[in-house]
Specification:
Blueprint: H1 5-8, E1 11-14, H2 30-35, H3 37-43, E2 47-50, H4 78-90, E3 94-99, H5 109-116, E4 128-129, E5 150-153, E6 158-161, H6 176-192, E7 196-199, H7 241-257, E8 264-267, H8 273-277, E9 289-290, H9 294-297, H10 302-315, E10 323-325, H11 334-352, E11 356-360, H12 380-384, H13 427-431, H14 437-450, H15 452-456, E12 458-461, E13 468-475, E14 478-485, E15 491-494, E16 502-507, E17 519-522, E18 527-532
Parallel strand pairs: 1-2, 1-11, 2-3, 3-7, 7-8, 8-9, 10-11
Antiparallel strand pairs: 4-6, 5-6, 12-13, 13-14, 14-18, 15-17, 16-18
Helix pairs in contact: 6-7, 11-14
The structure holds 1-deoxynojirimycin.
Length: 534
Amino acid sequence: MTVPWWQSGVIYQIYPRSFQDTAGDGVGDLKGITRRLGYLAELGVDAIWISPIYPSPMADFGYDVSDYCGVDPRFGTLADFDDLLAQAHARGLKVLLDFVPNHTSNQHPWFTESRSSRSNAKRDWYLWRDPAPGGEPPNNWISDFGGRAWEWDEASGQYYYHAFLKQQPDLNWRNPAVRAAMHDVLRFWFDRGVDGFRIDVLWHLVKAADFPDNPPNPAYRPALGEMDRLLQLHSTDQPEVHGIAADMRTLADDYGAAGQGERVLIGEIYLLVERLMRYYGEGRAGVHLPFNFQLIEAPWQARSLAALIAAYEAALPPGGWPNWVLGNHDRPRVASRLGEGQARVAAMLLLTLRGTPTLYYGDELGLSDVPIPPDQIQDPRELREPGKGLGRDPLRTPMPWDDSAHAGFSTASPWLPLNADWPARNVARQLAEPGSILALHRRLLAARRAHPALAIGDFALREAEGDVLAYERRHGADRLVVALNLAARPQRLALPEWAHDCRPLLSTLADVTPVQDGALLLRPDEGVILTLAD
Ligand code: NOJ
């Protein structure tokens, strides 16, 4: 049975500013990623997704694109990208880019034209509206980064809508010319050989045509971001978005059908499961993988996680392939949320659940969120609503490679501070330590390659009590039990008859303990994979 690479493989997210600098300016670049491809191949991942690399004024660090078909000089050149792609492919690694279709930069030539006059041909490429009576914004919508989502343009006497910063005006996806232009962008990169895209805020693309007010959120508390004052009922997740996703899917599938290799689309979508599932599309004509972020926010508790996993599996449409994520460039790091002991258990969970895992760079080292001194804060999210813990700088800090100056990340002072423990917590050190969390990731990724049951097998939750989460994976004769102790005290798991002869394949701790009397004794913070003895 052949399974597409995006189902059996593991994706690794790179935040390019923070991976490896070669230019000596303290900011990571494409040549840096190319230099570290050997590390990634040996780690055992199958694909990299690189956050935006396009020309950008960097108001939102690349999520404000001013040219979709280029490379920002801070990151290198198009030739550097082609080289990266060729070298990645030579190592068997796929490369995904970040597609940012909801908004451009306000410096994008399309917006410059659009704002130039009400009669400009590109006026309708963005969302321009007359003021409400009294000159107020057209409705009550709030930016995801806080503050009102409408910016007044004095010269043309209208407001434009921006779901994020005012430097990120939203495109009008109801306009066929916008769709055509964005399809050209996808083709530009697909033609160069890019294997797929992560699609930024896919559920935001279409807004209710008549822009009604959003209703108040009854669960709002002042500790939350201002955006949470309202439910985004009319500003996101409109039915028309599915046709747009389907068109992108058709475009991507055409490459596969032409024998040019399967291209994948992954949608960034923060919605409850039932709404999320719709992004697989009618007849699987939507994105291949609507990102499943539940593990990032779920309470770390065995029974509720078991229920969450069961509910997600049950909600998948026929043929819909699952996926799991523990962290990304917007959310606190897993080691900060759970501590290192449970971060190891979480890594085992991520890499043994059914579905495509996405690993966030640095999580394989157990990196924690790095406190950022106030005068070094960069993220507009933090600067707009300070002190609420919404800032993303702490989880975007440079990758510590070794114990040389600046952790081998750069020859200059990095754009964000390194983790304070970098002299000890770095790649080189952890590669030399068999018990490190990096070594654990390498063993888990090797196990996925060796065991089809882990990569593509069936999944069944096992009954377990207390703090133990247990499940089986099976593919033909390949059969495994995964048992995770989510607490810092020992636990006992009674095994089914067939597993009495199993031996431990690996543990999140340094050594393994055998199955005794049909049961597995899990030590504090221990996860174990059992396999049928040969
Ligand atoms: C979601 C991205 O993940 C985030 O980093 C960005 O700020 C917003 N979209 C706006 O593009």
